[in-house]
Design brief:
Strand content: 15-25%
Number of helices: 2
Structural class: alpha+beta
Strand order of the largest sheet: 1-3-2
Helix content: 25-40%
Shape: globular
Radius of gyration: 10 Å
Length: 55
C-alpha cells in the first residue's frame, strides 16, 4: 500500500494506513523531482510525503 500526501493530509494518510494495514508505515519525504509530478491521494495538491509499507 502506498499513499501520497500533501502537508494538510499527512495525519489522515497515517491514520488510514494504520487502520487498513494494522501496522505502522514508513513515512518518507519525496525527492524534488517526485514532488513536481505527484499529487496527493486526497486532493489535487502536490504530494510531499509517501506513506508506505517497508520494502
Amino acid at each position: 500500500m502506498r499513499i501520497f500526501s500533501c502537508e494538510n493530509h499527512i495525519n489522515h494518510a497515517l491514520d488510514m494506513f494504520v487502520a487498513e494495514q494494522k501496522t505502522f508505515p514508513m513515512l518518507e519525504e519525496l525527492n524534488n523531482e517526485e514532488k513536481l509530478s505527484t499529487v496527493c491521494s486526497y486532493c489535487e495538491s502536490n504530494a510531499i510525503y509517501i506513506v508506505a509499507t517497508e520494502n
